[in-house]
Specification:
Helix 3 runs parallel beside helix 7 and helix 5 runs antiparallel to helix 6. It contains eight helices and no strands. It is globular, with a radius of gyration of 19 Å. It is an all-alpha fold. 81% of the residues lie in helices and 0% in strands. The termini are far apart.
């Protein structure tokens, strides 16, 4: 119960309090090369996954999970303090429309089809994505992969996501942010199909992790730029908050549903297949994004 409160609720609230505002801040600070700047910002999450996954495993093996949590808590506190000191932005550095006062903005933007498309695609994407995050390790160990080898798959996802965040964000200047957004979404079900046929093949599982990491990283990096292009920079913090809400709801739905389905069907085939279908629906849900930008 304590873990649910401290980790589940605490980390969820903490992440929600800084991810959306920080993303909105970078979106307002950069008008040229905005997609690339947001991609660089998004690499932080990938680096954290790459570094902390093997570090956590080593700490747990050395002295148990309780000691590991204490060490990670100290590391997290130090990093957050450094981040707090580092972020110093004057209001005159922000883009003009982003400086509206609270009484000038509303949630009117949620009524537009383009924004609804962003919310729905983010919701469906996160349902599938969090199924992978929750079950890539247990499904791999069930297939005969060692626990250390299975945990390294998470590090592969983190490393590949860095490539996706920087690489796909840089492609947006050539193909447009919506095209890259759709492309990243379209690759995710391909990754899940590889996962579906991988069984006990570690090579295929690594390929799955790499493809998922690139596509997921590209999606995370380019999504804020799509929000800005489709919905504008005005009240960007609120818009990003609503979009990130869809990710949180997807994370709430995906893992428990996949776990229940896996228990009911005594296997991984059905939950992975359903997650693949959900990701395909996420791609289809982006059709309204071709419409003119919402104001």
């Amino acid at each position: 119960a304590i873990g649910y409160v401290t980790y589940g609720v605490g980390v969820g609230l903490g992440g929600g309090c800084f991810v959306a505002p920080l993303t909105a801040l970078v979106g307002q600070l950069f008008e040229t090369h905005r997609a690339l700047a947001l991609g660089v910002l998004a690499t932080g999450n990938g680096v954290g996954t790459l570094v902390l996954s093997p570090l956590s495993e080593s700490l747990i093996d050395a002295d148990g999970w309780r000691s590991a949590y204490r060490v990670l808590a100290v590391i997290a506190a130090a990093v957050f303090i450094l981040a707090l000191v580092a972020v110093r932005v004057r209001s005159d550095q922000l883009a003009g429309p982003g400086k509206q006062t609270p009484h000038q903005v509303s949630y009117e933007f949620v009524r537009h089809r383009a924004f609804q498309s962003l919310f729905v695609s983010g919701l469906l994407m996160s349902i599938g994505l969090f199924v992978a995050f929750a079950f890539v390790v247990p499904f791999a160990t069930d297939a005969g992969i060692s626990s250390s080898g299975a945990s390294r798959l998470v590090a592969v996802i983190g490393l590949a996501s860095i490539v996706g965040r920087l690489g796909l964000a840089s492609l947006s200047s050539r193909f447009g942010v919506v095209a890259v957004y759709r492309g990243a979404l379209a690759v995710m079900p391909i990754a899940f199909m590889i996962w579906l046929i991988a069984d006990g093949s570690y090579l295929l599982l690594v390929l799955f992790a790499a493809v998922l990491g690139v596509s997921y990283g590209g999606f995370v990096a380019i999504a804020p730029a799509v929000v800005i292009e489709q919905a504008g920079v005005e009240a960007l913090g609120r818009k990003m908050g609503v979009v990130f809400l869809s990710f949180g709801i997807g994370g709430l739905i995906g893992p428990p549903a996949a776990g229940a389905i896996a228990d009911a069907t005594s296997g991984r085939t059905v939950p992975i297949s359903i997650a693949t279908g959900v990701l395909l629906l996420a791609v289809l849900s982006t059709r309204p994004l071709a419409r003119p930008r919402v104001r």
